[in-house]
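FORM 7B: Structural annotation worksheet

SECTION A. Query
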Amino acid sequence: MADIRRVTPDFAVAPQISEADVEEIAAAGFKTIIANRPDGEGGVDQP
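SECTION B. Predicted structure
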């Protein structure tokens, strides 16, 4: 699972997550994921 770190009781941050992490993150109670990475970052190997 991703290295999730709570900043406040209602807000957490994590490094890059994988597709496989999404189900576990949802099971942990998170409802929203905000991706702050720009499109195309890292070239063709990154989503």
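SECTION C. Observations
Residues 19-27 form the longest helix (9 residues). Residues 1 and 20 are 8 Å apart (CA to CA).

SECTION D. Sign-off
Analyst initials: ____
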